[in-house]
Amino acid sequence: TSAARAAEIINNLLQFSRPRKGETVVISPAEILDAGVALSLADYDLKKRYDIADIEIVREYDPELKSISCVAMEIEQVILNLLRNAAQALTEREDRADQARIILRTGKVNGKARIEVEDNGPGMDAETLRHAFDPFFTTKEVGEGTGLGLSVSHTIICDKHQGRMWVESEPGRGATFIIELPMNG
Fold it and tell me: What is the pLDDT of residue 68?
């Protein structure tokens, strides 16, 4: 079992690190989300600082959403950024009575493919929400983050894939990052 798990992690790392020319492929959103989870579990810095393996990952995938057309490597990077941020937020929870949880959700809404990454962390106040996608805006300690992850992710989704990306959150109620992309074909 351990060898199979290691092989899966290595395969995902190779897929992610292989140079690509930004080719658009038809791929399952669930496959992209699962690759992002595998990459986050193999991310040494993430494991060292935030114990991603201790976070419950819940998958709520719509079986009707079979594929989207995208640059998979770029969407995987967005998912990895969102998972890193969620893991960090989950360590900042004051109320730790319930299990730290990230919910990955796919579906179709108004003719668009929707991907959601939801956590049960501390949430964000109105000021943080307003600046969440601004370049160099960060809530992390000095030296821990560049403030570029969400900004780059927003550019990948909105500019490169003609989609939409936003966040819904309230203090004490976690955060949900929502991505909508054009449907395949």
Answer: 93
